[in-house]
């Protein structure tokens, strides 16, 4: 057995331009701990009161709410963002002569997400750690320079780290199958007071031929994979050379665990083969060509990973905290347009985003958004069109018994008219709309069936979600999801919540950069053929084919929206109008894709269930019947893929026409 099946997620190593002093970061932590404590003690906390509290604690000098338009995701200090917005704390550090490093974790500490962030020193430090940086390759300036030279000088995710129980065997497997990728010929051994570390590092990808877009036999000296093994009695630190740092977490600080790490590469199949040859990682999910497209931008993606042999969760807590199931999605571009292509063109092959899972995503995101609104610090998230969650049409009323088509259309027009329409041009209903406002704006809604009409209008704020999840959530819970721009998908009864931050480590607006993802997996109980409960599985809920496309569309939509806003500020109205038209194309593509995505997701789920049933069938007849069902659902899935490809092609042509019209 290749050793990939016994690996676990360990840590992610970022390289940044610069770090502040540990003292400055700890001062910030103290301020936000005090802020959280005072906020919790308020009888009726509000954004306004929070702004006043933060002003008093931090001494920023303003008691009013920060201007939301003043917040920019570019030019931010990632450490500061993680501390202030996400509740991370520094639990380890290393101060070398040439580099500085901090380790940030959530409340789960070493059992969950561990972000290692290293930067070159702008000037010699006043004090150096008792561990000399020159003795630790993973903190050496040479590695930072090598990464920078091969990543267009950008900041980014430099190393993905896994822990295992036999890194020497992994080293030998790379020597045997992919020796050119070895960054260290033999495991590096580090003795510490607690025990012994062995570390092997390899380059993740091969360089790509710019003319054929295929991998060469030369290593790409950018992103690396690190394999770490520890033997001993005590391991308090993430890496040798790190000194533990005391950290206090506020009560509302969440925990987080690694879920998946995503790469953008030129040759996806080459990377898949490398991971299979060396670690035994195999494909788990394929997003076919044409399925993931936004206008002219088209990509392919495969989720690969290991197959842990000894994990069978019996509780949602075990699934949440499990780090044995490794998933590595891999993207490649199929067009010279869009985020993935631009990322590869600007930066080169590398890690697109890091995904972590939390226990309660809506509450997690609400906290981040509220803290940013009160303090001006933290992170923002990608904007998702409200139409993703739901939108209003006359048909929503015409389906009510006793409401004819003519009355439905009158109500629809009344809600869209007036100085302050309740219904926007794309059918989006005002989120805080009340029954009284609806009846006042739409006189035709009064009288017979008014209660059903009001319910239909209010539900239109989230009717796409409601069609997926029904009465499993309250209106308040649905609106919390909508207000915080959380993506939702469901597969075989498992629910997947996802959200994506704006870019991190981005020096200037418009430049490509990595981002973070946070998810929540809500696993449903499954029964086996014998009627007994099946173990819960890591990765329940899948990767959301609906959300995968929505992410891709949202990245392109957000970029077009930002470009339109900037051009209008500059007074270039014609150019701004072009990007506004692009936004409409992307939004419409999302509208028409949604029902097809539902069909595909349902067919994928039923196909998997049928194959599982065939695997456990007790008779040849039962097995044949299950396999026939699986084939039927596979055919339905492929038909959905073709339908989605047709939608993608239609919108690609619309985007081409837009560009040609404005040449």
UniProtKB/TrEMBL annotation:
Documented EC number(s): 1.13.11.27
One Gene Ontology biological process: L-tyrosine catabolic process
GO molecular function, one term: 4-hydroxyphenylpyruvate dioxygenase activity
Lineage: Eukaryota, Viridiplantae, Chlorophyta, Pyramimonadophyceae, Pyramimonadales
UniProt enzyme class: oxidoreductase
Organism: Cymbomonas tetramitiformis
Annotated Gene3D superfamilies: 2,3-Dihydroxybiphenyl 1,2-Dioxygenase, domain 1
Pathway stated in the Swiss-Prot or TrEMBL entry: Amino-acid degradation; L-phenylalanine degradation; acetoacetate and fumarate from L-phenylalanine: step 3/6
Protein name: 4-hydroxyphenylpyruvate dioxygenase
Keywords from the UniProt entry: Phenylalanine catabolism, Tyrosine catabolism
